[in-house]
Amino acid sequence: MELGRRGVLRGIGAGVVASSLPSCALADALQSGRKLGYAVVGLGSYAVNQLLPRIRECDYAKLTALVSGTPAKLEKYGAEYGIPKTHRYDYAGYDRIRDNPDIDLVYVVLPNSMHAEYSIRASKAGKHVLCEKPMANTAAEAEAMIAAARAANRRLMIGYRSHFEPHNLYVIDQIRKGAIGRPTLITSEHGFYAKPGQWRLDRPMSGGGSLMDIGIYSLNAARYLSGEEPVLVQAMESTDRSDPRFATVEDRIDFQLKFPSGAIANCVSSYSSNHNAFRATGTKGWIGMEPATVYDGHSIFVRIDGKTGPVELPKATKSQWAAQMDELAKAAIEGREPRASGAEGLRDMRLIEAIYASAREGRAIRMTS
Amino acid sequence: MELGRRGVLRGIGAGVVASSLPSCALADALQSGRKLGYAVVGLGSYAVNQLLPRIRECDYAKLTALVSGTPAKLEKYGAEYGIPKTHRYDYAGYDRIRDNPDIDLVYVVLPNSMHAEYSIRASKAGKHVLCEKPMANTAAEAEAMIAAARAANRRLMIGYRSHFEPHNLYVIDQIRKGAIGRPTLITSEHGFYAKPGQWRLDRPMSGGGSLMDIGIYSLNAARYLSGEEPVLVQAMESTDRSDPRFATVEDRIDFQLKFPSGAIANCVSSYSSNHNAFRATGTKGWIGMEPATVYDGHSIFVRIDGKTGPVELPKATKSQWAAQMDELAKAAIEGREPRASGAEGLRDMRLIEAIYASAREGRAIRMTS
Question: Which UniProt keywords apply (chains A, B) (predicted)?
Answer without folding.
Answer: Oxidoreductase
